[in-house]
Amino acid sequence: MKIALIAGTRPEIVKLAPVRDAMNALPDLQSWWLATGQHGSLAEQAMGVFDIVPDRQLSLNWTKSSLPSLFARLIEGLAEEYERSGPDMVIVQGDTASAYAGATAAHMLRIPVAHVEAGLRSGDLANPFPEEGFRRMIAPITDLHFAPTRAARDNLRAENIDDDKILVTGNTVVDAVEALGDNDVRPAALDDVAPGANIVLVTAHRRENWGEGIDSICEAVLDLRGRFSNTHFILPAHANPRVRDAVNQLLAGEPQISVVDPLSYPEFIGVLKRSSLVLSDSGGVQEEAPSFGVPVLVLRERTERMEAVKAGTALLVGTDRARIVTEASRLLADPRARLKMTKRGNPFGDGNAGIRIVAACRDFLQSSGPAAPKGGLLSRLGLGTTSIAMAE
Ligand code: UDP
C-alpha cells in the first residue's frame, strides 16, 4: 500500500516527519514523499533534519506568482504526479496552499484523502488568511480526519462530518519534539547571550501581521529591552523577505537583541527549551512550548489553538505594542507568574500521534470502507484515543 505525503512548508515537514517514520516501520506500507517547494530552502533545511529525501519535487516559482495562478499550476503538477505514481491514499497536513491543492487533486482523481491536524478553526476567514479557508475546504473532501484534540474533533462534528471518519490522535508536533529527545543542540545564536541572562524567543511571520503588526511587535521588543537589562531577545527571521526586511530594519545590531537566520529545527528547539518566555504568532510554536514549560504570549488577535490558552500556558495578546509590553513585563519581572503558566504535560498530544494516524490509514486501506475503523491495528497497539491526556 503506497501512501503519498504532501508537504511544502516547514511546519508541514516537521508535522509529517513522525507520520513517515511510523509508516516506514510497517513493512506493508510504502511512504512516497512529494515536496511542493512552497518554503524553498527553509523546507529543504527541515527535510534534511529528518533525513527526508523527497521522491518527487515540484518546480514552481513560489515567490513570483499570485496565489490563484500558483494554485492552478500546483493542482496540475500534483495531479500529474499522482497519475504517474498511483498512490492508494494521499495525506495532507494543516492548512497551506500545498495541503489544499494536494487534497483537491487527489479528490478529483478519486484517491482517498487523509487530513492530519484536521478541525482547527478560528471562525474567521480573514484570520489566518488564507489558511482558515483552506482547512475548511479540505474537510468535505477528506475520508479520514485526524483531529489533534477533542476541541478540533468537535469543530468537525459541528460541520456535520461523520463521526466514523474522525480520529483524535494528538498533534504530531509533540512526536517531533519528543523524537529529538536528548539530542540537545546549543545553537550559535546563544553565543551573544550574557551568562545568566533570561532569553525571550520571538517569532513573527503571519500574513495578517505583515506591515503594522510586525512593526509594532519589533517596537515592543525595543521597549522591553529598555526595561530588562538582564534579558536577551532572539528573533529567528523568517525567510519571507517582507518579514525579514522589516525585522532587520528595526532590530538588527541592537544590543541584547539577536536577529538570526532561520534556525534548523533542533537549533530552534535548543533555544526554545532555554527560554523564559516566547512571543510568537506561529501555530507550531504554541504547540511545542508547553512540552518545555515555556509560557507563550500569542501575537494574534485570535488563535485556533485555544487548548494552551485554556490550560493557562498561553495568553492571547495580539500585536498592540503596549499590551505586549505590559504582559511580557509582568511575566519577566515575576518568576512566580511564569511558573503559574507552566503545567505538566502538553495539552496538544502525547507523542503517539504518528502511530495512531498510520494505523488508522492502514486499517482504512485494508477494509477499503468509507469509515475509519477504530479497531484493527490501532486497538491491537493499545492506542485508542482515551489514553491521550488532552484538554477539552
Ligand atoms: N521553526 C524552526 N526554525 C525557526 C523557526 C521555527 O525550525 O527558525 C519551527 C518551529 O519549531 C515550528 C515550525 O517551524 O515547528 C513553525 O513554523 P512557522 O512558524 O513558520 O509556521 P506555523 O506553525 O505558524 O504554521
Automatic annotation (TrEMBL):
Keyword Isomerase: yes
Single GO molecular function: UDP-N-acetylglucosamine 2-epimerase activity
Signal peptide start-end: none
InterPro entries listed in its UniProt record: UDP_GlcNAc_Epimerase_2_dom (IPR003331), WecB-like (IPR029767)
EC number: 5.1.3.14
Keyword vocabulary terms for this entry: Isomerase
Coiled coil: none
UniProt enzyme class: isomerase
Protein name per UniProt: UDP-N-acetylglucosamine 2-epimerase (non-hydrolyzing)
